[in-house]
Amino acid sequence: MLQPTQRRTNAHVPNARLGHKYLGGPHLRIVAEHSEAEVQKRVADLLQKLENHSAVVGVVGMGYVGLPFAVEKGKVGFQVVGIEQNPSRAATINRGENYIPDVKDEELRDLVQSGHLRVVCDFREVPKMDVIVICVPTPLTKNLNPDLQFVEGVTRELAKYLRPGQLISLESTTYPGTTEEIMLPILEATGLKVEVDFFLSHSPERVDPGNSRYTTKNTSKVVGGIGPNSQTVAVTFYSQTIERVVPVSSANAAEMVKVFENTFRAVNIALVNELALLCDKMNLNVWEVLDAAFTKPFGIMPFYPGPGVGGHCIPLDPHYLEWKAREYNFNTRFIALAGEINRRMPEFVREKTHRVLNMLGISPSKSKILMLGISYKRDLGDWRESPALEIIKLLQADGADVVYHDPYVPNFDEHGIAMECVPLTDEMLESCSMCIIATDHQAVDYERVVAKVPHVLDTRNATKKLTANRDKVTLL
Ligand code: SAJ
């Protein structure tokens, strides 16, 4: 028998109309019946606030996803309140200062000055919010298992302040089932019921950091509600600032869409990395082979080998799906193999570095190596999970003196390595035994680098346009 504070779910009550609430001990009785009309009025009220932009929008996590999203919502007139755990980030935004390259400084400044955007560091203002969007990291543990501490922690905080009429939407990339199996029970433990009192959806972020062509506004957005009412309000919410919203049948489906997208990339990157490993053995130029293959006008799309796969999406997200699939006794072999090949690439770069040093007659332990590029991909300053860090660690273990230059990274302290960027002077270049190009930033003068250093190991084909000194370049 249910205890006084417990509720019977509708599933146990035949012909239950949506929205029955049962509180009761031995004599179960309907004490607060939500009529369908009441629920639909709640939906209508929220829709009105979304359509006339009078809704207050909360965005949890002011990172590369949350801040651009908050700015887009503020630009169309919503009152946006960011919730950010890092006080210095919050203070920076509240001063009208930007720290996300994909956000225009003046747009942020104008929104802060007009009061359309401000950031707090706790959840006490949640009751004022009509929509709360969650854009927090979903990392992996050391043994590649999902780490949902941030999603769960935020959901528990939101539950303390949850009120009827609110939409909660998770944007973080995660395994299918997170919204429904992890977040929903925490939110319904408050006694409020989804689809009746509050609404819940998943809409995966699709941000390509540094991509100026595809932005938060013009990148299509997949939206999956826990139920029809949640779907209606979530699609309306996202449609206010995003040109194309793609509704799917459930939050699970929306979660699966995103992990598939990133798995697609991880597997195809691994395919060309494996080809690079084979071409090395067959003395073929993998870059020539791929450039020729990508001239095919249909049925193919460009991917390129590299020193490994960085960022906090592609190396991580597919393992969320791999972990969940095991629950169904299903082995996602492509994901496992792709991860294995991609994680092997730093070791391959170390092996090719040894070959170059051998050719120069220099022992690794007596070498000075310039790592050119630390960021995980070109033209941005983000070194999370960057393969360059792994390669530095491997070469340092060989006794090499490793220095780095990255125009976007003045210094870094990660994975037990702390280094300062060295200037790319002729003297510095000439003092090195060799250089490894790990990130193909466009701002670097590769012609001068190749002219000044004894030899270059180019893991990104950054020197493809060079004609002079080609004998001083070894490609991955
Ligand atoms: N990489 C290769 N070869 C390639 C492409 C990429 O080695 O052909 C490497 C990159 O150098 C980088 C890593 O893989 O180290 C990830 O590359 P990425 O371009 O996928 O970079 P992310 O993680 O910043 O952005 C991706 C988005 N990228 C694109 O769609 C182009 C997209 O998958 C997601 O929207 C985003 O992650 C995310 O947040 O999930």
Overview of the molecule:
This protein has 14 helices and 15 strands. It has helices at residues 36-51, 66-75, 87-94, 105-114, 149-161, 178-188, 228-239, 251-281, 286-293, 317-326, 333-360, 387-397, 426-431, 446-452, and strands spanning 56-60, 79-83, 117-120, 131-134, 167-170, 199-202, 221-225, 245-248, 368-372, 401-405, 411-414, 417-420, 434-437, 456-458, 473-475. An eight-stranded mixed beta sheet has the order 3-2-1-4-5-6-7-8, with helices on both faces. It has a five-stranded parallel beta sheet with strand order 10-9-13-14-15, covered by helices on one side. Mean pLDDT is 92; it is low at 1-32. The protein folds into two domains: 17-249, Rossmann fold (3-Layer(aba) Sandwich), CATH 3.40.50.720; 344-475, Rossmann fold. The protein is an alpha/beta fold. Ligand SAJ is lined by residues 173, 205-209, 261-262, 265, 269, 303-304, 306, 309-311, 313-314, 376-377.
Give a brief outline of the structure.
The chain has about 475 residues and is an alpha/beta fold. The protein is built from 14 helices and 15 strands.
The tally of domains stands at 2
User: What fraction of the residues are assigned to beta strands by DSSP?
Assistant: 5-15%
Low-pLDDT segments: 1-32
Our count of helices gives 14
Shape annotation: elongated
CATH topology call of the largest domain: Rossmann fold
Q: Strand pairing plus helix content: what structural class?
A: alpha/beta
List the bound ligands.
ligand SAJ
CATH architecture classification name of the largest domain = 3-Layer(aba) Sandwich
The radius of gyration is: 26 Å
Instruction: Provide the helix percentage.
Output: 25-40%
- Compute the separation of the termini in Å: 67 Å
The count of β-strands is 15
Give the CATH H-level superfamily of the largest domain. NAD(P)-binding Rossmann-like Domain
Largest beta-sheet characterization: 8 strands, mixed
How are strands sequenced across the largest beta sheet? 3-2-1-4-5-6-7-8
> What series of H and E elements makes up the topology?
HEHEHHEEHEHEEHEHHHHEHEEEHEHEE
In round numbers, the mean pLDDT is 92
CATH uppermost class of the largest domain: Alpha Beta
